[in-house]
Design brief:
Elements: E1 15-17, E2 20-22, H1 31-40, H2 44-53, H3 58-105, H4 110-135
Helix pairs in contact: 1-3, 2-3, 3-4
């Protein structure tokens, strides 16, 4: 509450829509429904139709949808960043092992060389997959569970 505003003025955090005070969109009664539908990959029109049936104003429906969409993108990016970091770790570990043996010891056993190549290949695959997933999170369709 801002002491410099009268009680009749709206605060910066509250909107009055249908005589309801909304300080946080995640606390709105239909937000969980919208989030569930967005995470499952349902179309925008289906979500808006569902909210219209429940007498939610269109401007609030826009805000709910955009907030849920941002949560979806954040969820996909967190899953993809996990793969990206694992791939980067495998790449760094294989290069460090190869360089440590080659330059430090002057030789590398054949089995260790094959292990470094395998770790480099798997790490590169996971890194590229995680990077493309992270960068293209906003354009992915379908359920979020498909990307986990």
């Amino acid at each position: 509450m801002n002491p410099y505003k009268t009680s009749n003025e709206k605060s910066d955090l509250e909107d009055v829509i249908n005589n309801e005070f909304i300080a946080d969109l995640t606390e709105y009664r239909f937000y969980n429904l919208v989030l569930k539908m967005v995470l499952w990959g349902e179309s925008r029109q289906d979500i808006y139709n569902r909210l219209a049936v429940n007498n939610v104003p269109e401007e609030l429906a826009d805000r709910l949808y955009e907030h849920a969409r941002a949560d979806r993108i954040r969820t996909i990016r967190s899953d993809c960043s996990h793969d990206l970091l694992i791939g980067l770790g495998l790449i760094v570990a294989s290069v460090a092992t190869f360089c440590g043996c080659w330059f430090g010891l002057g030789f590398i056993p054949r089995i260790l060389l094959y292990g470094c190549f395998a770790a480099l290949g798997i790490g590169s695959w996971k890194f590229i997959d995680g990077l493309t997933g992270y960068l293209m999170a906003s354009s992915k369709t379908g359920s979020v569970s498909d990307y986990a």
